[in-house]
Design brief:
Strand order of the largest sheet: 1-5-4-2-3
CATH superfamily of the largest domain: Rhodanese-like domain
CATH topology of the largest domain: Oxidized Rhodanese, domain 1
Largest sheet: 5 strands, parallel
Strand content: 5-15%
Number of strands: 5
Order of helices and strands: HHEHEHEEHEH
CATH architecture of the largest domain: 3-Layer(aba) Sandwich
Oligomer: single chain
Length: 153
């Protein structure tokens, strides 16, 4: 008897939900799309082969393993300061200048840009070139500055 009541309530609830969705489909569509937009960065981070590294882990890696630090910002951004010992190759020139860095394929690589958006594209390009230990600096040079870490001019 009790299970039958729950089944009736469930059927009624599903019918009410379906009626609501058919009457308010634009609202339901906005709800679904906004949910996907909220979850996309989290999902992208999980499925992306590119790994991010924070400023603390980046300084540890720089001190312990002497990685190739690659700045992929444009020349006007690079003039404002860079991470110490960084090699500057703008993202737009990375394919053309790949020969300059392929000799460092065995070293770990830290790629950064201004905010961390372009560096994820650069990590994919570097992995296609054969680099296996490529990491993107989370937050880019802005996060580096906010952490109070030194910049070279």
């Amino acid at each position: 008897m009790r299970d039958r009541r729950y089944a009736i309530i469930l059927v009624f609830a599903v019918a009410s939900l379906m009626e609501f969705l058919t009457r308010n489909w634009p609202l339901a569509l906005v709800f679904v799309v906004s949910g996907i937009m909220l979850l996309w960065p989290l999902l992208k981070r999980r499925i992306s082969p590119a790994r991010e590294i924070g400023t603390l882990d980046a300084t540890r890696l720089i001190n312990a393993e002497d990685p190739l630090v690659l700045d992929v910002r444009e020349p006007n951004e690079y003039a404002g300061g860079r991470l110490p010992n960084a090699l500057h190759i703008p993202l737009s020139q990375l394919k053309d200048r790949a020969a300059e860095i392929t000799k460092h394929v065995a070293r770990p690589v830290i790629v950064y840009c201004d905010r961390g958006m372009r560096s994820s594209a650069a990590t994919s390009a570097l992995e296609r070139l054969g680099f296996t230990r490529v990491q993107s600096l989370r937050g880019g040079v802005r996060a580096w500055k906010e952490a109070g870490l030194p910049l070279a001019k």
